[in-house]
Design goal:
The chain has two domains: 1-40; 57-129, Aspartate Aminotransferase, domain 1 (Alpha-Beta Complex). It has helices at 6-25, 30-39, 42-72, 80-84, 96-106, 122-129; strands at 89-91, 113-115. The protein is built from six helices and two strands. The longest helix is centred in the middle third of the chain and has 31 residues, at 42-72. Strands 1-2 form a two-stranded antiparallel sheet.
């Protein structure tokens, strides 16, 4: 929104926050309907649990593969925090300066966390990250 004054912009922002809060606090019902459909059908439920397990297993595999490749690249750092974490992101343990070096010197973009799905691309990533 573009407003003529900072005061008016503040008022508009206040109203937008009220509208947005309602949207976030009351998500659409269709997600719940999808879950109900899946969990009320034995075959769909079985498939859903199988797919969730497959995704979780892949994340675990990618974490272990990253640690193995870091060791193979010559890193002597303890990367066990990568395999002991859960979820789609892994805390790298790198400092802000190290993350910035990867970004500006090697075009590897990340925060202090690494998305586990990028673990497949080891050719450049591992070669640079292990030095930290």
């Amino acid at each position: 929104m573009v407003c003529p004054t900072a005061e008016e912009a503040g008022k508009v922002l206040s109203q937008l926050k009220i509208i947005i809060r309602a949207a976030y606090s009351n998500p659409p019902i269709h997600g719940a309907h999808i879950v109900r459909t899946i969990l009320s059908d034995a075959e769909l439920e079985k498939q859903w649990y199988s797919e969730c397990k497959g995704m979780a297993d892949r994340i675990i595999e990618m974490r272990q593969l990253l640690v193995d490749n870091l060791a193979a690249a010559g890193s002597t750092k303890d990367w066990s925090h990568i395999t002991s974490q859960i979820g789609m992101f892994a805390y790298s343990g790198m400092s802000k300066e190290q993350v910035e070096s990867l970004r500006y010197d090697h075009a590897i973009y990340m925060t202090g966390k690494i998305l586990t799905e990028i673990f497949d691309d080891f050719r450049r990533f591992v070669g640079e990250i292990w030095r930290f």
